[in-house]
Amino acid sequence: MNVKSLTKVSLNLSGLILLGSVLFYYLGKPGIATPLIILFFVLFLIGMNSIELLKGFSFTIWVIAAATISMIYPEYITSIGGYQTDNLIVPLIQLIMFGMGTTMGIKDFAGVLKMPKGVLVGLVLQFTIMPLVALSLTQVFNFPPEIAAGVILIGCVPCGVSSNILNFLSKGNLALSITLTSFATLMAPLVTPLLMERLAGQFIPIDVSTMILSISKMIFLPLIAGIVYNRFLGSRSAWLNASMPVIAMAANVFIIAVIVAAGRDSLLSMGFFLFLAAFIHNAMGFLLGYWGGRLFKLNKRDSRTIAIEVGLQNGGMAAGIAQELGRAATMGLYPAIFGTWMDISGSFLANLWRKKPVEDNVLDEETESDFSSKKVIVAKPE
Description:
Largest sheet: 2 strands, antiparallel
Strand order of the largest sheet: 1-2
Number of strands: 2
Strand content: under 5%
Helix content: over 70%
Shape: globular
Structural class: mainly alpha
Number of helices: 18
């Protein structure tokens, strides 16, 4: 049996096992059903390679699998050999940000000189739409204070690198996307704490200076270190460029698993409402980001680019901030849910726009070629 046949068999078996697990749950035998769910994910992840359409969602499936296993067996995730796994969240975020920096160069920031209006509009929309929508959602759903602070937190962080990937797939303005992500990330150590104090201070105490130092240590310094490394040693470390995407994805999956396991009880009590809030938050980011761009007379291609930048947030950064504040199980819960959902919705939106290009959708061939050759780091539960 060749590899292709094996993957098809795995996919078919995964479907049968999923049906079996549902049946055993219905019969009141969760002890049999839960191991079958884990087996389903294992076989599905192997089998999905037999269908071209599913290959692009492999990271999302890994995230869903990690979250599901964390809900079933939280005690095996929150502590390993007596070591509290949430202590690894910040170091892993620092590793991811360093990896992000190794893919960036000075020309990623020089883009502002070529398209100042698009960058300015994108940054204004990024740091107004998502925070204000988040604040509105906390009022509508009346979440507990620390959960509400987490909703606002995901709204106050910048866009993540996954927005660059999805803009590439959707044939958006990639140069604008990369420049926006770069500037928004560098602005985060100052802008995010100020927004949090203003909007989330009513829910939990926010120490702006402490948060600035925390984000700088977690995001800014590793990012700058990565950029410097790329400038002077990047050409000599092909192995690092090849391995960092895999390391970053594994780190993201682990972070989500830890946060979901730690916040399992909160998820069981209000998980549906958190998901509904994430769905609305993400959709409003896409919708208002696009029409905000059109309002400022940007063309359709640039407006699509900004929509993706606004709708997708850096969930990894939000999780790290929540951990630094000692509230990973509460503040970090919504970012984990939002990060998982935005990957799914963003992938579908990118594929839709790719199939429906606009007239002004002419890619900069040099930028596209450069991006294709990069080993991009996806920074989210990004």
